[in-house]
Amino acid sequence: MRLFRMFVAVLLLLYPATALAQTVWDMPTEYPQSAMPGLGITTFATRLAELSSGKLQIKPSFDAAAGIRSAGMLTAIAAGRVQAGDAFAGALEAEDPIFALPSLPFLVTSIAEARRLSELARPYLAAALQKKGQRLLYLTPWPPTGIWSKIALNTASDLSGLSIRTYDNISSEVFANIGAKAATISFADTMPKLADGSINAVLSSGDGGAGRKLWEYLPYFTAINYSLPLSVASINQAVYDGLDRGLREAVDTAASQTETELWAALSTRLQENYARMRASGVTIDSNPAPAIVMAFHDGAAAAQSAWCARSGPVCPQILDAFNAGRP
């Protein structure tokens, strides 16, 4: 017995109690580490480790390395495959219509408007996650979405020649309305489609590492500012509830700090992305022909009306407040 106690004492000296009590959570995203969701997960991991004194650690994975796309993220978290994750909100509309709100076409026109909409939507997003047994950690903002293409888009008629990857059902409907061949494809599955030629355009901001993949195939970017969407980071509620009060506070504070840092990063993100894109040979049309933008008008209006019909009273509750805050 004496020898056993001595052995335990040595272990405690070599491996402090904080290390022995360490908890590791898997937290995947389908996007590259250098894209906004990847930046969010790495920031959250750093802040959480600091605030929990190393007791809580995040094991991140990127580029859908865990085999989980955005559309399946909530199911994976609920089933316990992973403890937390980041998912593109628009891909979750089948879970609840509220998730499609941030990517409604041409609803927001600036970072300030995107942030205001996110604050209005936050309690509704949190409630939708709660119904799935999850807790909202933070919202990840994206730079404005545009069209990556093999050819320059000079006229509205050029849009009908696109076979384009879209990121949710609404964007597929909007692009189909202008005559394009559109398909909802997760970003993780987009590159093989570009490689085999089954698509010749991508709806995306091309943020961070995402752009580095896209410009290998698509040398033109048309900045139509389709939307400034959001991704959603969440954690299994039972996992969160199993923590003591101090660690729950660490999680909440780390999440809040992460979101603040992400919005701060977004302010210069577009310029940084454009600089990398131009340096890699991408031609950026920052002022597309008015006819190209106008081509989306009817489809965008129809998409918003259809979303309102699906979302019921949530639509006027959020959009009336949003529109009332406009100058």
From TrEMBL:
Entry-linked Gene3D superfamilies: Bacterial extracellular solute-binding protein, family 7
Keyword Protein biosynthesis included in the entry's annotation: no
Domain of life: Bacteria
Any single biological process term in GO: transmembrane transport
Signal peptide (residue range): 1-21
Keyword check for Signal: yes
Sorted UniProt keywords: Signal
NCBIfam families: TRAP_S1 (NF037995)
PANTHER family reported for this sequence: PTHR33376, SIALIC ACID-BINDING PERIPLASMIC PROTEIN SIAP
Protein name (Swiss-Prot/TrEMBL): TRAP-type C4-dicarboxylate transport system, substrate-binding protein
Organism of derivation: Bradyrhizobium lablabi
Taxonomy of the source species: Bacteria, Pseudomonadati, Pseudomonadota, Alphaproteobacteria, Hyphomicrobiales
